[in-house]
Give the backbone structure.
Amino acid sequence: MSGRELDEKVETKRQLEVNTNQDIAKLEAYFGASMEMTLKNLPTVCVHTPSPWPGPYWPTFQDSINVQWSKGEASPAEKYATAFGLDVTDFMNKVSADNGVDSKRSHKKCSSDKDCSSLTDGSACAIRAGKSSGYCIPTWFGICHAWTPASIMETEPKCPVTHNGVTFHPMDLKALISDIYDGASVPTVFTGTRFNGGADSEDEYGRHSSESYRDLNPAFLHIAATNIICKHNATFVADVTAGTEVWNQPVRGFKVYEQTAMSLEEAAQTFYGLEVYPWNAAAMSIVYVKVRMSWIYETYKDGGLVSSGQVDQFTTGAYYYYLLEMDDNGAIIGGEWVYDSDEDHPDFLWFPKAKPAANTVTKIGLSYADVSMLLEKSVACSDSASTTGSTSAGSAESSGSTLASTSSSASTGASTSGSSVSSASASTGSVGPATSSTASGIGSAATETPATQIPATETPVATTTSSGIATVVPAVTTATPSGSQVGGNQGQHDSDDGHHHHHQQHEQQQQQHEQQQQQREQQHEQQQQQHEQQQQQHEQQQQQREQQHEQQQQQHEQQQHQREQQHEQQ
């Protein structure tokens, strides 16, 4: 699509939020089809199959893919160098300088976690194997911006593969393919505007003044998710928080739980305590919507987790609440976040347009052709019996230590179509193995509950549900949403850094939000009952007034009749 054609497309649609029209045009250009925007024609349950696969974010402080994730075995990097005739020391040094401990030479030097205790960014003292000192590195830095597209584009490895006497487990192959996507030039489609902080405030309705905070506009999210997943059987990566932090997660499903039709006046009164709906003069009606978007989170558990069904254990998500603004033909022309979703909603979404070029060799010497060969054998289980869903004896669970931490943004957002996936966004973290890449004792991070122990709150189900619109008005609220922003705001770091999504905290806040929503619904039911009682009282009073009026009318007629009789007699 040419620039002129893109501009013409944009001009025919309402500007929903920052760049939203252009974002819709990007999707249409990529898929070669118009986005369905009529609500009644959009599916209510969308599940991408096969699911993106869970995997680690290969933390920087653990020296990236130099980490010995399985006790007693070589790291993925050492295995690759050995199997393909590279100098092991040189290759591992390149890995460290690219995404591992040595990539943070500018950080504070340390020999123990105590040296990093004055920092407020959750840093641990990261020391490479065989060294006595290292650097203070936040434990959430990593390459989730590479794991996420790889988990979408590449088939999950299932079985061990032996090449030149070296055995690669599925987790080793996840490390290698993730590092390929970090180093390769992969074109992407990027939508939304990253919120980088700066001037922002909330009005009395909880609505943010910053357009880049308010986006993704819920209208675009609804249109994009249902069209991408249901209509085109594709999926995307979402930064699942609206603030300055970047939490990339591969999306698995999108499900509509409620659609309630409302007049403009009802919506204005219910959500803002106003007589007139204030946000979109072109809107003819409103639909209140409750949805849940599900995504995959990180783990070091080995094996084919998707094919074995264990992916459900690593599926989580969030509920979102919003208003869709409709034209008189039932097409979505805008939207507004409500309740806690004013604060907590996706910031941007993106996806890779293609796999890396077949002849890709990254700057550290990692060959896509070599890794693809290993991956194909692992998927086919051609070298050994399947170990689908297994966990290596020396994996994170048996290594004697687990790591998890909260997260902070560390990168710039991806550029528009044609940009490298490696610049797409920050990385996330997860439970990980204890390795010689870090100083003994990881400070407060070691006391966190591993994110991988949290059960999935909901597994998307590929069923068909009615897309009809309900008629019950949602609970009245004009107050600022009570939920707080998920995660701390600890500033920004380098463009290749990332952060760990603290799933337990997020789930707790989601549970609190659900409880608050239930309370609002109960209050609404009570208000409805009170309204009905008042209506009944009003009807009874009206009947009494009518009866009194009839009696007075009869008395008046009788008196009039008596006067007429008296007049005749006279």
Summary: The chain has a mean pLDDT of 77. The chain has eleven helices and 13 strands. Residues 503-569 form the longest helix (67 residues). Residues 3-501 form one domain.
